[in-house]
Amino acid sequence: MEDNKVLLAVALAVLLAVLSKLKSRLVAKPKLKLPPGPWTLPLIGSLHHLVTSPSIYRAMRGLSHKYGPLMMLRLGEVPTLVVSSPEAAEAITKTHDITFADRHLNATIAVLTFDGTDIVFGSYGERWRQLRKISVLELLSVARVQSFRRIREEEVARFVQSLAASAGAGAAPVNLTKMISKLINDTFVRESVGGRCKYQDEYLEAFDTAVRQTSVLTVADLFPSSRLMQVLGSAPRKALACRKRIERILEQIIQEKKEAFDSGDETAHEGLLGVLLKLQKDRSTPTPLTNDTILTIMFDMFGAGSDTSSTTLNWCMTELVRSPAAMAKAQADVREAWKGKTMITEDDLEGLSYLKLVIKEALRLHCPLPLLLPRQCRETCQVMGYDIPKGTSVFINAWAICRDPKYWDDAEEFKPERFEKNNIDYKGTNYEFLPFGSGRRMCPGANLGIANVELALASLLYHFDWKLPDGMEPKDVDVWEASGLIGKKNTGLIVHPVTRVAPAS
Ligand code: HEM
Protein backbone atom coordinates (compact mmCIF):
# COMPACT_ATOMS: atom_id res chain seq x y z
CA MET A 1 0.00 0.00 0.00
CA GLU A 2 2.82 2.45 1.00
CA ASP A 3 4.72 1.46 -2.19
CA ASN A 4 1.69 2.29 -4.32
CA LYS A 5 1.43 5.72 -2.73
CA VAL A 6 5.09 6.46 -3.50
CA LEU A 7 4.65 5.27 -7.09
CA LEU A 8 1.59 7.47 -7.48
CA ALA A 9 3.45 10.51 -6.12
CA VAL A 10 6.39 9.94 -8.47
CA ALA A 11 4.09 9.52 -11.48
CA LEU A 12 2.26 12.72 -10.54
CA ALA A 13 5.51 14.64 -10.21
CA VAL A 14 6.71 13.42 -13.63
CA LEU A 15 3.35 14.34 -15.19
CA LEU A 16 3.49 17.83 -13.68
CA ALA A 17 7.04 18.35 -14.93
CA VAL A 18 6.09 17.26 -18.46
CA LEU A 19 3.00 19.49 -18.43
CA SER A 20 4.95 22.49 -17.24
CA LYS A 21 7.56 21.93 -19.97
CA LEU A 22 4.81 21.63 -22.59
CA LYS A 23 3.14 24.76 -21.29
CA SER A 24 6.36 26.75 -21.47
CA ARG A 25 6.75 25.63 -25.09
CA LEU A 26 3.16 26.42 -26.00
CA VAL A 27 3.07 29.82 -24.32
CA ALA A 28 5.53 31.38 -26.73
CA LYS A 29 7.65 34.12 -25.20
CA PRO A 30 7.37 37.41 -27.08
CA LYS A 31 10.19 37.39 -29.60
CA LEU A 32 12.88 39.90 -28.80
CA LYS A 33 14.42 42.05 -31.50
CA LEU A 34 18.08 41.68 -30.61
CA PRO A 35 20.86 43.80 -32.13
CA PRO A 36 22.56 42.10 -35.08
CA GLY A 37 25.74 40.13 -34.65
CA PRO A 38 27.96 37.59 -36.39
CA TRP A 39 27.05 33.90 -36.65
CA THR A 40 27.74 31.80 -33.58
CA LEU A 41 29.04 28.30 -32.95
CA PRO A 42 27.62 25.92 -30.36
CA LEU A 43 29.27 26.31 -26.97
CA ILE A 44 31.83 29.03 -27.82
CA GLY A 45 29.30 31.44 -29.35
CA SER A 46 31.10 34.31 -31.10
CA LEU A 47 34.56 33.72 -29.66
CA HIS A 48 36.05 32.52 -32.94
CA HIS A 49 35.42 36.01 -34.39
CA LEU A 50 37.53 37.63 -31.69
CA VAL A 51 40.69 35.59 -31.91
CA THR A 52 41.57 36.87 -35.39
CA SER A 53 42.96 40.15 -34.04
CA PRO A 54 45.76 40.91 -31.55
CA SER A 55 43.26 42.45 -29.16
CA ILE A 56 39.57 41.95 -28.48
CA TYR A 57 38.67 45.61 -28.97
CA ARG A 58 40.33 45.69 -32.40
CA ALA A 59 38.38 42.58 -33.41
CA MET A 60 35.18 44.13 -32.05
CA ARG A 61 35.79 47.29 -34.09
CA GLY A 62 36.16 45.20 -37.25
CA LEU A 63 32.90 43.37 -36.52
CA SER A 64 31.02 46.57 -35.70
CA HIS A 65 31.82 47.94 -39.17
CA LYS A 66 29.67 45.11 -40.49
CA TYR A 67 27.01 44.78 -37.78
CA GLY A 68 26.65 48.33 -36.54
CA PRO A 69 27.12 50.38 -33.37
CA LEU A 70 24.94 48.05 -31.28
CA MET A 71 26.11 44.51 -31.84
CA MET A 72 25.22 41.32 -30.02
CA LEU A 73 27.86 38.67 -29.35
CA ARG A 74 27.85 35.56 -27.23
CA LEU A 75 31.09 35.02 -25.33
CA GLY A 76 30.76 31.38 -24.36
CA GLU A 77 27.34 31.46 -22.75
CA VAL A 78 27.42 35.16 -21.83
CA PRO A 79 25.23 37.43 -24.01
CA THR A 80 27.35 40.50 -24.70
CA LEU A 81 26.40 43.84 -26.20
CA VAL A 82 29.17 45.82 -27.90
CA VAL A 83 28.66 49.57 -28.20
CA SER A 84 30.71 51.32 -30.89
CA SER A 85 29.38 54.82 -31.60
CA PRO A 86 29.02 58.02 -29.57
CA GLU A 87 25.22 57.91 -30.00
CA ALA A 88 25.01 54.36 -28.71
CA ALA A 89 27.39 55.17 -25.83
CA GLU A 90 25.16 58.10 -24.88
CA ALA A 91 22.10 55.84 -24.98
CA ILE A 92 23.75 53.44 -22.50
CA THR A 93 25.49 55.90 -20.17
CA LYS A 94 22.96 58.74 -20.19
CA THR A 95 19.50 57.84 -21.52
CA HIS A 96 19.47 54.38 -19.89
CA ASP A 97 22.14 55.06 -17.28
CA ILE A 98 20.33 53.43 -14.33
CA THR A 99 19.36 50.37 -16.37
CA PHE A 100 23.04 49.78 -17.18
CA ALA A 101 24.48 50.85 -13.84
CA ASP A 102 25.47 47.32 -12.78
CA ARG A 103 28.83 45.80 -13.56
CA HIS A 104 29.20 42.41 -15.17
CA LEU A 105 31.04 40.23 -12.69
CA ASN A 106 32.86 37.20 -14.06
CA ALA A 107 34.23 34.39 -11.92
CA THR A 108 37.79 35.79 -11.69
CA ILE A 109 36.73 39.34 -10.96
CA ALA A 110 34.19 38.13 -8.38
CA VAL A 111 37.02 36.47 -6.49
CA LEU A 112 39.17 39.59 -6.58
CA THR A 113 36.47 42.07 -5.68
CA PHE A 114 35.12 40.25 -2.65
CA ASP A 115 32.07 39.17 -4.69
CA GLY A 116 31.49 42.61 -6.07
CA THR A 117 31.13 44.37 -2.73
CA ASP A 118 33.59 47.06 -3.80
CA ILE A 119 33.22 50.34 -5.73
CA VAL A 120 34.64 49.33 -9.10
CA PHE A 121 32.62 46.14 -9.54
CA GLY A 122 29.92 46.60 -6.91
CA SER A 123 26.38 46.18 -8.12
CA TYR A 124 24.29 49.32 -8.19
CA GLY A 125 22.59 49.79 -4.82
CA GLU A 126 22.80 51.53 -1.47
CA ARG A 127 26.17 50.10 -0.42
CA TRP A 128 27.79 50.98 -3.75
CA ARG A 129 26.29 54.49 -3.63
CA GLN A 130 27.71 55.10 -0.15
CA LEU A 131 31.16 53.80 -1.04
CA ARG A 132 31.25 55.78 -4.25
CA LYS A 133 30.26 58.90 -2.30
CA ILE A 134 33.20 58.36 0.06
CA SER A 135 35.55 58.00 -2.89
CA VAL A 136 34.25 61.11 -4.66
CA LEU A 137 33.93 63.42 -1.64
CA GLU A 138 36.67 62.20 0.68
CA LEU A 139 39.35 60.38 -1.31
CA LEU A 140 39.49 61.82 -4.82
CA SER A 141 38.23 65.39 -4.48
CA VAL A 142 40.27 68.23 -6.00
CA ALA A 143 41.36 69.31 -2.50
CA ARG A 144 42.52 65.80 -1.57
CA VAL A 145 44.43 65.40 -4.82
CA GLN A 146 46.07 68.78 -4.13
CA SER A 147 47.03 67.64 -0.64
CA PHE A 148 49.25 64.92 -2.19
CA ARG A 149 51.23 67.36 -4.32
CA ARG A 150 54.34 67.22 -2.11
CA ILE A 151 54.46 63.45 -2.59
CA ARG A 152 54.30 63.83 -6.37
CA GLU A 153 56.91 66.59 -6.39
CA GLU A 154 59.33 64.51 -4.30
CA GLU A 155 58.82 61.33 -6.28
CA VAL A 156 59.22 63.07 -9.65
CA ALA A 157 62.40 64.80 -8.41
CA ARG A 158 63.83 61.44 -7.34
CA PHE A 159 62.84 59.90 -10.64
CA VAL A 160 64.47 62.65 -12.68
CA GLN A 161 67.67 62.33 -10.65
CA SER A 162 67.87 58.59 -11.23
CA LEU A 163 67.29 59.13 -14.95
CA ALA A 164 69.98 61.79 -15.08
CA ALA A 165 72.35 59.31 -13.43
CA SER A 166 71.78 56.86 -16.26
CA ALA A 167 72.06 59.52 -18.96
CA GLY A 168 75.85 59.81 -19.21
CA ALA A 169 77.68 59.54 -22.53
CA GLY A 170 77.94 55.95 -23.76
CA ALA A 171 75.38 54.72 -21.23
CA ALA A 172 72.99 51.94 -22.24
CA PRO A 173 69.45 52.96 -23.19
CA VAL A 174 66.80 52.74 -20.50
CA ASN A 175 63.49 50.91 -20.48
CA LEU A 176 61.40 54.02 -19.87
CA THR A 177 58.17 52.00 -19.61
CA LYS A 178 59.52 50.10 -16.60
CA MET A 179 60.87 53.26 -14.98
CA ILE A 180 57.54 55.05 -15.45
CA SER A 181 55.71 52.13 -13.93
CA LYS A 182 57.99 52.25 -10.88
CA LEU A 183 57.57 56.02 -10.53
CA ILE A 184 53.77 55.79 -10.60
CA ASN A 185 53.73 52.82 -8.22
CA ASP A 186 56.05 54.58 -5.76
CA THR A 187 53.93 57.72 -5.95
CA PHE A 188 50.66 55.87 -5.69
CA VAL A 189 51.72 53.75 -2.73
CA ARG A 190 52.68 56.93 -0.88
CA GLU A 191 49.41 58.63 -1.85
CA SER A 192 47.57 55.53 -0.63
CA VAL A 193 49.27 54.71 2.65
CA GLY A 194 50.84 58.06 3.39
CA GLY A 195 54.45 56.94 3.34
CA ARG A 196 56.86 54.42 1.94
CA CYS A 197 55.77 50.86 2.48
CA LYS A 198 58.06 47.99 3.31
CA TYR A 199 55.63 45.51 1.75
CA GLN A 200 55.49 47.37 -1.58
CA ASP A 201 57.37 44.86 -3.77
CA GLU A 202 55.47 41.87 -2.40
CA TYR A 203 52.18 43.73 -2.80
CA LEU A 204 52.90 44.80 -6.37
CA GLU A 205 53.95 41.32 -7.37
CA ALA A 206 50.71 39.79 -6.05
CA PHE A 207 48.70 42.58 -7.58
CA ASP A 208 50.30 42.22 -10.98
CA THR A 209 49.62 38.48 -11.05
CA ALA A 210 46.02 39.08 -10.01
CA VAL A 211 45.43 41.69 -12.71
CA ARG A 212 46.95 39.41 -15.35
CA GLN A 213 44.25 36.83 -14.55
CA THR A 214 41.55 39.40 -15.35
CA SER A 215 42.98 40.79 -18.56
CA VAL A 216 41.95 37.81 -20.68
CA LEU A 217 38.70 35.88 -21.10
CA THR A 218 39.03 32.54 -19.33
CA VAL A 219 36.92 29.37 -19.50
CA ALA A 220 35.52 29.89 -16.02
CA ASP A 221 34.36 33.38 -17.04
CA LEU A 222 32.86 32.23 -20.34
CA PHE A 223 30.82 29.38 -18.87
CA PRO A 224 29.63 30.68 -15.50
CA SER A 225 26.93 28.01 -15.17
CA SER A 226 29.28 25.06 -15.76
CA ARG A 227 30.72 23.49 -12.61
CA LEU A 228 33.24 21.63 -14.75
CA MET A 229 34.59 24.84 -16.26
CA GLN A 230 34.77 26.42 -12.82
CA VAL A 231 36.88 23.46 -11.70
CA LEU A 232 39.01 23.42 -14.86
CA GLY A 233 39.54 27.18 -15.02
CA SER A 234 42.70 28.12 -13.18
CA ALA A 235 42.31 31.92 -13.32
CA PRO A 236 39.83 32.24 -10.41
CA ARG A 237 42.00 29.94 -8.28
CA LYS A 238 45.15 31.92 -9.05
CA ALA A 239 43.23 35.15 -8.42
CA LEU A 240 42.04 33.84 -5.05
CA ALA A 241 45.59 32.99 -4.00
CA CYS A 242 46.72 36.51 -4.97
CA ARG A 243 43.77 38.11 -3.22
CA LYS A 244 44.61 36.27 -0.01
CA ARG A 245 48.21 37.49 -0.20
CA ILE A 246 47.05 41.04 -0.90
CA GLU A 247 44.54 40.84 1.95
CA ARG A 248 47.26 39.72 4.37
CA ILE A 249 49.54 42.57 3.36
CA LEU A 250 46.78 45.18 3.51
CA GLU A 251 45.63 43.90 6.91
CA GLN A 252 49.19 44.28 8.15
CA ILE A 253 49.46 47.81 6.75
CA ILE A 254 46.09 48.79 8.25
CA GLN A 255 47.10 47.35 11.62
CA GLU A 256 50.40 49.27 11.66
CA LYS A 257 48.70 52.45 10.56
CA LYS A 258 46.07 52.08 13.29
CA GLU A 259 48.73 51.63 15.94
CA ALA A 260 50.51 54.77 14.71
CA PHE A 261 47.15 56.53 14.66
CA ASP A 262 46.37 55.54 18.27
CA SER A 263 49.81 56.55 19.49
CA GLY A 264 49.17 60.09 18.23
CA ASP A 265 51.53 59.93 15.25
CA GLU A 266 50.43 62.89 13.08
CA THR A 267 51.71 61.32 9.86
CA ALA A 268 49.23 58.48 10.31
CA HIS A 269 46.50 60.81 9.02
CA GLU A 270 48.22 61.07 5.65
CA GLY A 271 47.28 59.21 2.51
CA LEU A 272 43.98 57.67 1.48
CA LEU A 273 44.28 55.09 4.24
CA GLY A 274 44.72 57.81 6.87
CA VAL A 275 41.52 59.47 5.61
CA LEU A 276 39.59 56.19 5.78
CA LEU A 277 40.83 55.40 9.29
CA LYS A 278 39.83 58.85 10.46
CA LEU A 279 36.34 58.39 8.99
CA GLN A 280 36.16 55.01 10.72
CA LYS A 281 37.16 56.48 14.05
CA ASP A 282 34.72 59.39 13.78
CA ARG A 283 31.94 57.00 12.66
CA SER A 284 30.95 59.73 10.24
CA THR A 285 29.81 57.59 7.32
CA PRO A 286 26.28 56.15 6.88
CA THR A 287 27.79 52.75 5.96
CA PRO A 288 30.06 51.68 8.82
CA LEU A 289 33.64 51.53 7.62
CA THR A 290 34.75 48.13 8.88
CA ASN A 291 38.34 47.00 8.39
CA ASP A 292 37.11 44.76 5.57
CA THR A 293 35.45 47.67 3.79
CA ILE A 294 38.60 49.78 4.13
CA LEU A 295 40.61 46.90 2.73
CA THR A 296 38.22 46.62 -0.23
CA ILE A 297 38.43 50.34 -0.97
CA MET A 298 42.23 50.34 -0.76
CA PHE A 299 42.34 47.39 -3.13
CA ASP A 300 40.07 49.27 -5.55
CA MET A 301 42.02 52.50 -5.47
CA PHE A 302 45.24 50.77 -6.30
CA GLY A 303 43.69 48.54 -8.95
CA ALA A 304 41.90 51.37 -10.70
CA GLY A 305 44.50 54.09 -10.33
CA SER A 306 48.01 52.83 -10.73
CA ASP A 307 48.23 50.98 -14.05
CA THR A 308 45.88 53.42 -15.78
CA SER A 309 48.11 56.39 -14.85
CA SER A 310 51.40 54.72 -15.83
CA THR A 311 49.89 53.45 -19.09
CA THR A 312 48.84 57.02 -19.95
CA LEU A 313 52.27 58.50 -19.19
CA ASN A 314 53.97 55.74 -21.16
CA TRP A 315 51.80 56.37 -24.24
CA CYS A 316 52.43 60.13 -24.00
CA MET A 317 56.18 59.54 -24.17
CA THR A 318 55.86 56.85 -26.86
CA GLU A 319 53.82 59.05 -29.17
CA LEU A 320 56.09 62.06 -28.60
CA VAL A 321 59.19 60.00 -29.41
CA ARG A 322 57.42 58.88 -32.59
CA SER A 323 56.47 62.47 -33.52
CA PRO A 324 59.58 64.68 -33.40
CA ALA A 325 57.58 67.81 -34.31
CA ALA A 326 55.15 67.34 -31.41
CA MET A 327 58.08 66.49 -29.10
CA ALA A 328 59.92 69.70 -30.11
CA LYS A 329 56.78 71.78 -29.54
CA ALA A 330 56.06 70.21 -26.13
CA GLN A 331 59.69 70.66 -25.03
CA ALA A 332 59.79 74.28 -26.24
CA ASP A 333 56.58 74.97 -24.30
CA VAL A 334 57.98 73.62 -21.02
CA ARG A 335 61.51 74.96 -21.46
CA GLU A 336 60.26 78.45 -22.22
CA ALA A 337 57.98 78.43 -19.18
CA TRP A 338 60.53 76.96 -16.76
CA LYS A 339 63.63 78.70 -18.09
CA GLY A 340 66.53 78.28 -15.63
CA LYS A 341 64.56 76.40 -12.95
CA THR A 342 66.01 73.33 -11.31
CA MET A 343 63.41 72.82 -8.55
CA ILE A 344 60.01 72.21 -10.06
CA THR A 345 56.67 72.30 -8.25
CA GLU A 346 53.10 71.78 -9.41
CA ASP A 347 52.63 75.57 -9.45
CA ASP A 348 54.92 75.54 -12.46
CA LEU A 349 52.38 73.52 -14.46
CA GLU A 350 50.16 76.57 -14.76
CA GLY A 351 49.96 77.72 -18.38
CA LEU A 352 51.54 74.63 -19.99
CA SER A 353 48.73 74.38 -22.51
CA TYR A 354 50.37 72.11 -25.09
CA LEU A 355 51.19 69.53 -22.42
CA LYS A 356 47.49 69.16 -21.65
CA LEU A 357 46.73 68.62 -25.34
CA VAL A 358 49.42 65.92 -25.51
CA ILE A 359 47.83 64.05 -22.60
CA LYS A 360 44.36 64.30 -24.15
CA GLU A 361 45.61 63.06 -27.50
CA ALA A 362 47.44 60.11 -25.89
CA LEU A 363 44.23 59.22 -24.04
CA ARG A 364 42.28 59.45 -27.30
CA LEU A 365 44.56 57.10 -29.23
CA HIS A 366 45.25 54.78 -26.32
CA CYS A 367 42.40 54.58 -23.82
CA PRO A 368 44.01 52.65 -20.93
CA LEU A 369 40.70 50.80 -20.52
CA PRO A 370 39.73 50.42 -24.19
CA LEU A 371 36.38 48.75 -23.37
CA LEU A 372 35.87 50.81 -20.19
CA LEU A 373 34.70 48.40 -17.48
CA PRO A 374 31.91 45.95 -18.36
CA ARG A 375 28.39 46.98 -17.40
CA GLN A 376 25.36 44.74 -17.06
CA CYS A 377 21.76 45.32 -18.08
CA ARG A 378 19.52 45.29 -14.96
CA GLU A 379 16.14 45.12 -16.77
CA THR A 380 15.17 44.15 -20.30
CA CYS A 381 14.90 47.42 -22.19
CA GLN A 382 14.88 48.96 -25.65
CA VAL A 383 17.91 50.83 -26.95
CA MET A 384 17.92 52.42 -30.41
CA GLY A 385 15.07 50.16 -31.52
CA TYR A 386 16.58 46.89 -30.23
CA ASP A 387 15.69 44.80 -27.20
CA ILE A 388 18.50 44.27 -24.72
CA PRO A 389 17.70 41.38 -22.36
CA LYS A 390 18.26 41.62 -18.61
CA GLY A 391 21.65 40.19 -17.64
CA THR A 392 23.39 41.13 -20.92
CA SER A 393 26.96 42.18 -20.33
CA VAL A 394 27.93 45.44 -22.06
CA PHE A 395 31.26 46.62 -23.45
CA ILE A 396 31.58 50.21 -24.64
CA ASN A 397 34.38 50.21 -27.19
CA ALA A 398 35.78 53.63 -26.27
CA TRP A 399 38.99 52.78 -28.10
CA ALA A 400 37.13 52.30 -31.41
CA ILE A 401 34.96 55.39 -30.88
CA CYS A 402 38.04 57.51 -30.17
CA ARG A 403 39.53 56.43 -33.50
CA ASP A 404 36.42 56.66 -35.63
CA PRO A 405 37.15 58.77 -38.75
CA LYS A 406 33.50 59.90 -38.72
CA TYR A 407 34.32 62.00 -35.65
CA TRP A 408 38.07 62.55 -35.91
CA ASP A 409 40.16 63.85 -38.83
CA ASP A 410 43.28 61.74 -39.44
CA ALA A 411 41.92 59.56 -36.69
CA GLU A 412 44.94 57.25 -36.44
CA GLU A 413 47.46 60.13 -36.29
CA PHE A 414 48.89 61.66 -33.10
CA LYS A 415 47.92 65.34 -33.42
CA PRO A 416 47.57 67.11 -30.05
CA GLU A 417 46.65 70.34 -31.90
CA ARG A 418 43.25 68.90 -32.77
CA PHE A 419 42.10 69.69 -29.22
CA GLU A 420 43.08 73.35 -29.66
CA LYS A 421 40.23 73.87 -32.07
CA ASN A 422 37.45 72.20 -30.14
CA ASN A 423 36.14 72.11 -26.59
CA ILE A 424 36.11 68.33 -26.43
CA ASP A 425 36.99 67.12 -22.95
CA TYR A 426 37.09 63.85 -21.06
CA LYS A 427 34.43 64.84 -18.51
CA GLY A 428 31.98 62.27 -19.84
CA THR A 429 29.69 64.48 -21.92
CA ASN A 430 31.55 64.32 -25.25
CA TYR A 431 30.61 60.80 -26.20
CA GLU A 432 33.22 60.54 -28.96
CA PHE A 433 35.93 60.88 -26.28
CA LEU A 434 35.35 58.69 -23.21
CA PRO A 435 38.72 57.60 -21.78
CA PHE A 436 37.24 57.94 -18.27
CA GLY A 437 33.82 56.60 -19.21
CA SER A 438 30.57 58.42 -18.53
CA GLY A 439 27.46 58.43 -16.38
CA ARG A 440 26.97 56.93 -12.92
CA ARG A 441 29.88 54.54 -13.30
CA MET A 442 32.30 57.11 -14.68
CA CYS A 443 35.82 57.16 -13.25
CA PRO A 444 35.92 59.27 -10.06
CA GLY A 445 39.74 59.34 -10.15
CA ALA A 446 40.44 61.45 -13.25
CA ASN A 447 41.88 64.37 -11.22
CA LEU A 448 44.35 62.14 -9.41
CA GLY A 449 45.19 60.18 -12.58
CA ILE A 450 45.99 63.34 -14.54
CA ALA A 451 47.89 64.90 -11.61
CA ASN A 452 50.11 61.80 -11.44
CA VAL A 453 50.88 62.15 -15.15
CA GLU A 454 51.28 65.92 -15.65
CA LEU A 455 54.26 66.84 -13.48
CA ALA A 456 56.15 63.70 -14.46
CA LEU A 457 55.60 64.28 -18.18
CA ALA A 458 56.56 67.95 -18.03
CA SER A 459 59.73 67.07 -16.11
CA LEU A 460 60.73 64.37 -18.60
CA LEU A 461 60.40 66.92 -21.40
CA TYR A 462 62.15 69.72 -19.54
CA HIS A 463 65.21 67.91 -18.26
CA PHE A 464 65.94 65.52 -21.13
CA ASP A 465 66.19 65.09 -24.86
CA TRP A 466 65.23 61.64 -26.01
CA LYS A 467 67.24 59.63 -28.53
CA LEU A 468 66.37 56.31 -30.04
CA PRO A 469 68.90 53.43 -30.04
CA ASP A 470 71.24 53.42 -33.07
CA GLY A 471 69.59 52.54 -36.34
CA MET A 472 66.07 53.14 -35.09
CA GLU A 473 63.78 55.74 -36.66
CA PRO A 474 60.80 57.35 -34.88
CA LYS A 475 58.37 55.45 -37.11
CA ASP A 476 59.94 52.16 -35.94
CA VAL A 477 58.72 52.70 -32.37
CA ASP A 478 56.13 50.04 -31.64
CA VAL A 479 52.60 51.26 -30.96
CA TRP A 480 50.88 47.92 -30.57
CA GLU A 481 48.95 47.23 -27.42
CA ALA A 482 49.44 44.04 -25.42
CA SER A 483 46.80 41.41 -26.14
CA GLY A 484 43.81 41.13 -23.85
CA LEU A 485 41.42 43.67 -22.43
CA ILE A 486 43.86 46.33 -21.17
CA GLY A 487 45.44 49.01 -23.36
CA LYS A 488 49.07 48.74 -22.21
CA LYS A 489 51.92 49.07 -24.68
CA ASN A 490 53.05 45.66 -25.87
CA THR A 491 56.80 46.29 -25.60
CA GLY A 492 58.86 48.57 -23.39
CA LEU A 493 59.88 52.00 -24.72
CA ILE A 494 63.66 51.82 -25.05
CA VAL A 495 65.33 55.25 -25.27
CA HIS A 496 68.47 57.21 -24.32
CA PRO A 497 67.85 60.18 -22.03
CA VAL A 498 70.26 63.06 -22.76
CA THR A 499 70.31 65.61 -19.96
CA ARG A 500 69.49 69.16 -21.10
CA VAL A 501 68.79 70.78 -17.73
CA ALA A 502 70.42 69.00 -14.80
CA PRO A 503 67.99 68.47 -11.92
CA ALA A 504 68.76 69.88 -8.47
CA SER A 505 70.50 67.26 -6.35
C1 HEM B 1 44.59 58.18 -16.39
C2 HEM B 1 44.10 57.49 -15.40
C3 HEM B 1 42.76 56.79 -15.38
C4 HEM B 1 41.96 56.37 -16.40
C5 HEM B 1 42.20 56.52 -17.89
C6 HEM B 1 40.79 55.75 -15.80
C7 HEM B 1 39.74 55.20 -16.51
C8 HEM B 1 38.62 54.63 -15.94
C9 HEM B 1 37.52 54.07 -16.68
C10 HEM B 1 37.40 54.02 -18.18
C11 HEM B 1 36.61 53.60 -15.78
C12 HEM B 1 35.27 52.94 -16.10
C13 HEM B 1 34.25 54.02 -16.38
C14 HEM B 1 32.93 53.53 -16.90
O1 HEM B 1 32.62 52.36 -16.77
O2 HEM B 1 32.19 54.38 -17.44
C15 HEM B 1 37.14 53.84 -14.46
C16 HEM B 1 36.49 53.53 -13.29
C17 HEM B 1 37.00 53.78 -12.04
N1 HEM B 1 38.18 54.45 -11.74
FE1 HEM B 1 39.48 55.22 -13.09
N2 HEM B 1 40.90 55.82 -14.44
C18 HEM B 1 42.09 56.45 -14.13
C19 HEM B 1 42.57 56.74 -12.88
C20 HEM B 1 41.93 56.45 -11.71
C21 HEM B 1 42.45 56.75 -10.39
C22 HEM B 1 43.76 57.48 -10.11
C23 HEM B 1 41.55 56.26 -9.50
C24 HEM B 1 41.57 56.28 -7.99
C25 HEM B 1 42.62 56.19 -7.27
C26 HEM B 1 40.46 55.66 -10.24
C27 HEM B 1 39.36 55.07 -9.67
C28 HEM B 1 38.31 54.50 -10.39
C29 HEM B 1 37.17 53.86 -9.77
C30 HEM B 1 36.92 53.72 -8.26
C31 HEM B 1 36.34 53.42 -10.81
C32 HEM B 1 35.02 52.67 -10.69
C33 HEM B 1 33.85 53.62 -10.70
C34 HEM B 1 32.51 52.93 -10.57
O3 HEM B 1 32.33 51.82 -11.06
O4 HEM B 1 31.63 53.53 -9.95
N3 HEM B 1 40.73 55.79 -11.57
N4 HEM B 1 38.36 54.47 -14.58
Automatic annotation (TrEMBL):
Subcellular location: Membrane
Cofactor dependency: heme
InterPro entries linked to this entry: Cyt_P450, Cyt_P450_CS, Cyt_P450_E_grp-I, Cyt_P450_sf
Alphabetical list of CDD domains matching this protein: CYP71-like (cd11072)
A Gene Ontology biological process term: defense response
Membrane topology note: Single-pass membrane protein
Transmembrane segments: none
Main location: membrane
UniProt KW keywords: Heme, Iron, Membrane, Metal-binding, Monooxygenase, Oxidoreductase, Plant defense, Transmembrane, Transmembrane helix
Superkingdom: Eukaryota
Residues given in the record as heme binding sites: 443
GO molecular function, one term: oxidoreductase activity
GO cellular component assignments: membrane
Family the entry assigns: Belongs to the cytochrome P450 family.
Protein name: Cytochrome P450
Lineage of source species: Eukaryota, Viridiplantae, Streptophyta, Embryophyta, Tracheophyta
